[in-house]
Amino acid sequence: MGMYATKSTAEGSLKVDTQWLKQHDYFCGFRNGGITWTSGFGHKSSISLMVYTTADSPKINFQYSITDRWNGEKKSMDYSFPLIQVPCNIGGFRWAFKCSLFKNGRYCGRTVYTLYKANSDYFGCRHCAGVVYESQRHSGAKFEYFGKLLDADDKIEKLYKTIRKWQYRGFPTRKVKRLRKLEEYSTLNAVRYNQAMDLL
User: Fold this and answer.
1) Exposed site from 7, 127, 144, 162, fewest CB < 10 Å?
2) Are residues 161 and 96 in the same domain?
């Protein structure tokens, strides 16, 4: 299996990203809401969110409960991560998370656009959550669908930084159309990759 065999994958982990928050108008001053995920086995997981972007210290607050797999006891989680404004190359800015977890006694502080929950009780950046991309688990396998994909998430994040306007006269801009195509391409190749892995 290789060096990543014991780690969870980003594709199979619960996640919160700024793209989804922007699409659902969470960066509008203050808004509360939530996200619910359903697994392939019908199991549901949900969290409550509160996003503050007009305060002196913008932040996102997470509230949810977790159940101990051994004794069934429930634990309430309530914590926040700072939100920061990342300048775009052509003006404007994009909201990002500041990962505030500690790993091996060290404060993380990474600026990221996606937070994952996999190997701990908390959401965190990919490094703190201990997740890898599915393609990293099989770095020795060569599949045509992933031959041109170096890192889909990084490509999407880089393109995101250059987007200043999402619409022009009611229609998506060219960069937004390119972003959507990249997301579709990434999703399609992930499906094909998983199908190829099933044949091994």
Assistant:
1) 144
2) no
Q: Is the dihedral of CA 102, 103, 107, 108 positive or negative?
A: negative
| Residue 193: HSE in the Cβ half-sphere, 13 Å Cα cutoff | 23
Structure tokens at 153: 């998430």
Same domain, 32 and 57: yes
Residue labelled with tokens 């309430």: 76
- Going from the C-alpha of 82 to that of each of 111, 167, 187, the distances in angstroms are 10, 28, 29
Q: What percent of the chain has pLDDT over 90?
A: 28
Condensed to tens digits (0 to 9), the pLDDT of residues 169-190 reads 888 888 888 877 777 766 665 5
On whether residue 2 sits in a domain, the answer given is: no
Does residue 150 sit in the same domain as residue 173? yes
pLDDT at position 190: 57
